[in-house]
């Protein structure tokens, strides 16, 4: 029986009482900050599948940049752990909005981490491959030296440093270019939908990444949290490709013509934020996910069987 329907007689217990033989996660919820974003919704969805009770809050209920708000919510919800999925995600817009980007991406996680540390609570937050500059030829591991090229990357690096300074047992998961069938705001969805309309799809062919399937990312991150993992971990699907190659693979799996993909250099898009020429992530800590090909098979199959908005 999942924890949400547990029949334990708790009505007469003290609020802070947890029986020795019952894990805290069977009684207390997992608090998700940033409930309305792609990752927040995915964490809530997968926790439900796994029988983990959650309380998912958006900006209106939990201002992650406010210590008062964070402390008030943690004391009211009494979670066994906190997962932060809130943040500023507009990489190019951040170049002209550094203050808000740093507030949401660096201050927010450090505020939550501080509140969690004071209550001895596990804390998970997500970071990015954009903390690296792409100058090395080999993939980046957890111990590689960061050197971000843009405001967004600098905000994520600041978050990593601040979080681990105030909460050394916190879990920081770096990931890259995530995609899923659960929302329409990701590169794979854009590519497949363009191909279904018979339109050409331009994509960079000189930037190498390690795309990540959201269900694999979330399940592995939750496993690490449940195992009391700490520090920085790289979580991506096994394999790497350029953006153009990713578009071709996704479109081909949808039964459409990969010739609709038009490879372009990244400079062609004239984006405000600089990107590393390669930001492939691998783990030196033994994390192995499904291959990228396997992940794309599942994603495109889900897109066909459960189209968004239908």
From TrEMBL:
Species whose genome carries this gene: Hymenobacter arizonensis (Siccationidurans arizonensis)
SUPFAM superfamilies in UniProt: NAD(P)-binding Rossmann-fold domains
Protein's pathway: Carbohydrate biosynthesis; dTDP-L-rhamnose biosynthesis
EC supergroup of this enzyme: oxidoreductase
Single GO molecular function: dTDP-4-dehydrorhamnose reductase activity
Family according to the record: Belongs to the dTDP-4-dehydrorhamnose reductase family.
Sorted UniProt keywords: NADP, Oxidoreductase
Statement: the UniProt record of this protein carries the keyword Endoplasmic reticulum: no
Domain RmlD-like substrate binding: 30-285
Pfam families per the UniProt record, alphabetical: RmlD_sub_bind
Domain of life: Bacteria
Biological process terms in GO annotation: dTDP-rhamnose biosynthetic process
EC number: 1.1.1.133
Key word Cell membrane present: no
Protein name in the entry: dTDP-4-dehydrorhamnose reductase
Reaction it catalyzes: dTDP-beta-L-rhamnose + NADP(+) = dTDP-4-dehydro-beta-L-rhamnose + NADPH + H(+)
Function in brief: Catalyzes the reduction of dTDP-6-deoxy-L-lyxo-4-hexulose to yield dTDP-L-rhamnose.
């Amino acid at each position: 029986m999942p924890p949400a329907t547990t029949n334990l007689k708790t009505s007469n217990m003290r609020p802070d009482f947890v029986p020795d033989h019952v894990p805290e996660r069977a009684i207390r919820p997992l608090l998700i900050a940033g409930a309305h974003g792609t990752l927040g919704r995915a964490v809530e969805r997968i926790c439900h599948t796994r029988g983990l009770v959650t309380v998912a809050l958006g900006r209106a209920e939990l201002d992650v940049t406010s210590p008062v708000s964070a402390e008030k919510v943690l004391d009211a919800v009494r979670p066994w752990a906190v997962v932060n999925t809130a943040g500023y995600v507009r990489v190019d817009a951040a170049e002209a909005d550094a203050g808000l980007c740093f507030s949401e991406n660096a201050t927010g996680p450090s505020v939550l981490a501080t509140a969690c540390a004071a209550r001895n609570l596990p804390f998970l937050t997500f970071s990015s491959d954009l903390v690296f500059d792409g100058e090395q030829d080999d993939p980046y591991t957890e111990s590689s030296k960061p050197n971000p090229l843009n405001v967004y990357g600098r905000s994520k690096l600041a978050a990593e440093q601040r979080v681990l300074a105030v909460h050394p047992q916190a879990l920081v998961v770096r990931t890259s270019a995530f995609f899923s069938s659960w929302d329409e705001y990701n590169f794979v969805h854009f590519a497949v939908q363009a191909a279904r309309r018979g339109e050409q799809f331009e994509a960079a062919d000189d930037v190498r990444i390690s795309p990540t399937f959201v269900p694999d990312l979330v399940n592995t991150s939750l496993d690490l949290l449940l195992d009391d993992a700490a520090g920085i971990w790289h979580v991506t699907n096994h394999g790497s490709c350029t953006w153009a190659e990713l578009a071709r693979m996704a479109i081909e799996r949808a039964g459409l013509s990969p010739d609709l993909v038009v490879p372009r250099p990244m400079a062609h898009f004239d984006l405000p934020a600089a990107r590393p020429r390669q930001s492939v992530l691998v783990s030196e800590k033994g994390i192995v996910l499904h291959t990228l090909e396997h992940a794309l098979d599942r994603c495109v199959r889900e897109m066909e069987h459960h189209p968004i908005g239908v």
